[in-house]
Amino acid sequence: MSTGKPFGRFERSLAWRYLRAKREHGGASLIAIISFVGIALAVAALIVTVSLMTGFRQTLVNSLIGGQGHIIISTNDLPEADGLAVIDIVSGLDGVESASPIIEEQVLLSANGAQAGAAVRGVRVEDLSVYPSIDESEIEGFGEGRKGGNMIIMGKALAARMGVSVGSRVTLLGAAGAATAFGSKPTSKEYVVGGFLSTGSVELDALYIFMPFEQAQLFFRHKGAVPLVDVRLDDYLATDNAKRLISEATGNQFFLRDWKQHNAGFLGALQTESGVMRIIMLVLITITSLNIITGVVMLVKNKTRDIAILRTIGAGRGAVMRVFMTIGATLGFAGAVTGLIIGTLLVVNIDSVEWFLNGVTGGEIFPAEVYGLEGLPAELDWATSLTTTAYAVLMSVLVSIPPARWAAKLDPVDALRFE
């Protein structure tokens, strides 16, 4: 008897027939079905977990680089003309999207009888476009008036904490002030809230205040100077090469720091957590795939007579082995693809999933004040999803080899005798 080519039509049809057979007829056991479900759930869980971790990381990175430059140049209060000359040089470099003067200082914010610390960033009106967290159309009058006017933009969470709205008046108290006989006198001034910014990170939105650059120069005693330059890149990850180009173009006379250095510990923790989670989930998939061994072994025991007959009429050991390997691979492939579909649907509809879980638990499973983010972030990583699916299929094939070899080694005479 010829079984045709390896993994040909005969072997595939026989494997499919065994899988479809009812359990009372010696078909796939309950353990095999559990293996299929286990692989599907494990793959779906890994896809959702990795997508959430990717979403966390991307959302936090976007919020961080939305509120701060990719690279910050400390120009040590260069005269404004010299500072703008440096900006012109940096703006012309390859990979640089924009460069703008900024001022960053700490203040004490007072409003409605409450106080809170805040970070003020002085920016020019024409540079607001580099901040995706600010809707320029909703902020009329920012930067208008004498010395930049008295309008500021507050972080949404900070405004909510202080109980202020558009048009509210707040007082800022800065450390830098005029010298007196009794020491330095803090600078204090009242400002009007003109709008809000929302970076996606509650922590950053509870910290930042944007002030017109000219007004910040006056308030923080940087009149006629550029203390810092905010550099935005086409690729925010390419900071090392950009720093080298900037240093060469400016004669290595300024100190440069990038957003990755400023948040090194935070990003490192995210990367480590993501890596460990992937390993844990891959181990889970491996353990789940091992159940296929039991399922295929049970199927081999149920089909001992069939195996003996196949061997008697001329089927080789290789053909028998490939039949049961195909069964294991089919279970793994079906489970992995099902998991891929389930995981993808959950990630794509993550908002609905969060809403459903909130309703089931009767509370908020992802409170913004705890996690510092608005909503459950998830970003589907197709490379990881497909790799995970392929890994599950590969493990299913590998764990099917031992029971398939056992089936191939069955002696047809002994098998029929015991039957």
Explain what you see.
The protein is an alpha+beta fold and 419 residues long. The chain contains 15 helices and nine strands. Helices cover 54% and strands 20% of the residues. Strands 2-3-7-4-6-5 form a six-stranded mixed barrel. Helix 9 crosses helix 11, helix 10 packs across helix 15 and helix 11 packs antiparallel against helix 14. The longest helix has 39 residues. It is elongated.
**Uncertain ranges:** none
Average predicted local confidence, pLDDT: 80
| Count of structural domains | 2
Q: What coarse outline follows from CA principal-axis ratios?
A: elongated
Terminal-residue CA separation:
23 Å
Major sheet strand order: 2-3-7-4-6-5
Q: SSE order, as H and E?
A: HHEHEEEHEEHEHEHEHHHHHHHH
Helical content stands at 40-55%
Computed Rg: 32 Å
Number of helices: 15
Structural class: alpha+beta
**What is the count of β-strands?**
9
How many strands, what sense, and barrel or not for the largest sheet? 6 strands, mixed, barrel
Beta-strand content estimate? 15-25%
Summarize the model shown.
The chain is α+β, with helices and mostly antiparallel strands. The protein is 54% helix and 20% strand.
Blueprint (SSEs and pairs):
Layout: H1 9-20, H2 30-67, E1 71-79, H3 80-91, E2 96-111, E3 114-123, E4 151-155, H4 156-162, E5 169-180, E6 183-197, H5 202-205, E7 208-212, H6 213-219, E8 225-233, H7 239-249, E9 255-258, H8 259-262, H9 264-302, H10 304-312, H11 317-348, H12 350-361, H13 368-371, H14 382-409, H15 412-418
Parallel strand pairs: 3-7, 4-6
Antiparallel strand pairs: 1-8, 1-9, 2-3, 2-5, 2-8, 4-7, 5-6
Helix pairs in contact: 1-11, 2-9, 2-11, 2-14, 9-11, 9-14, 10-15, 11-14
